[in-house]
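Collaborator request, handled under Task 6.
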Amino acid sequence: MGFFSPTSRDSQQPAAPSVSGANYLLWIDGVGTWLVYLQDTLRIGGPGRPGSTSPLSSEWADLALLSNLSRHHATISRSGESYYLQANAPVFYQQRPVNERVLLTDQAELRLNQDTILTFTQPTALSTSACLEFTSFHQPQQRLDGIVLMAENCLLGATGENHVVCPKWPGSVVIYRQGDQILCRSRQEIYVNEEPASQGAVLTPGCLVSGPDLRFRWEVIV
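Structure tokens returned to the collaborator:
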């Protein structure tokens, strides 16, 4: 069963961490692995020093790609409902060089140096959250299928309006912030560690969410 092995109801569950200072890995059975990034600012750069303990970040960047990039090459920041790109080294936005902060739009191509390409998307008007896709296949040390820049919620489901598209799912799941916690809910029957969660349940590190033809695991990255 691997990391999708159900957690016993009798086992002690870890307390849900504060969403401030924490980010998460979303392991979706049959779909892939996504970084759910909760901070307002994402620094993108090259790989860290040899022996770095984090497979995703470095001392200079929140997202450290295995690519020929500066330590802190560019920054994406969220302000209200908008996202902005700031360049600290050669960056091209829609094939134009970035010399000052620019507003990001849906399906925008971001080229860092000459060969590292990310695509910025905002798949639905129902959410301020956005996504980054690895168009050129440059990755951090730990492989990801994409990044959700999560504002208030993250939508998972079969259609293209979701932040993470799960083609075989019969319904959708919403991951959302509530106060200082992260929860999930769904219109269909779902469970968090075998406990009913359709009306909303807190996601704790390592918990398993399951339902008809869907399963995912939620892991914290401090």
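The cover message to the collaborator said: "Residues 1-13 have pLDDT under 50 and may be disordered. The first strand starts at residue 23 and ends at 28. Please let us know whether this matches your experimental observations."
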